Amino acid sequence: MHGSLALLTCLFLLIPAAAAQKQGPLPSHSPPPVQLKLLGTTPDKDIKLGSWVEYAVTDTTEKKNYKMKIAFVGREGGGKFSWLEITLTGLGRTVYLKMYMEGTPGTAGTIKRLIMQIGAMQPMELPLVKLTEVLPVISQKPIVAPRVVGNVDLRTPAGQFPGSLHVRAVNADGQMMNFYHHKQALMWSLVKLHDGRFDMELVGQGLGAVSRIRQTPVPFHLPR
User: Fold this and answer.
1) From CA 217, how far away is CA 162, in angstroms rounded?
2) Mean of the pLDDT values across residues 191-204?
3) Within 13 A of 125's CA, how many CA atoms are on the CB side?
4) What's the pLDDT score for residue 142?
5) Is 178 within the bounds of a domain?
6) How many structural domains does the chain have?
7) Residue 34 clears pLDDT 50, i.e. is over it
């Protein structure tokens, strides 16, 4: 499961309009509190409660294909805190990851709680020190020199995205990364991503998402 969760490195590298905005570096250490920046939304874009996006993901290193759904499933404290839930399918049992974060999706915020559920098993509350295992991105260095290189018309299973913004950058290993963004793509406007290991394509999006983790979580333990 650790290998499959490595795809979350991609999740937190979403950078619409990156070349037009100053972006702070991702945190490079733990223990908590951990500041995770979902790198930017389209400027002034409101992410509505219940929004969800789903990507087809290809891991060219491990030669695996799966889907990743990201949903904004909760808001508390008058909007000061948010629940984001990630669903991974196609790798055996479905994995759900639910994060309670300070702030709204797309802004820097401290993760307060992290809950994981595997299939229909009892959900587990993970200690935040486990973030380095579950969310490898927190130990990644920032993207280097993102820049807009043009526009391209894209067609995906989620629809047509004419004039998508093409952003190119370099990751910490010197690998070229290509992002394609469009304002009609929900959440962080990401339509496609290619980073040398992961290929991601938007295959679905919509509103009305609710959390799939509904039982009371128990303390973290390794499943048998």
Assistant:
1) 43
2) 90
3) 10
4) 63
5) no
6) 1
7) no
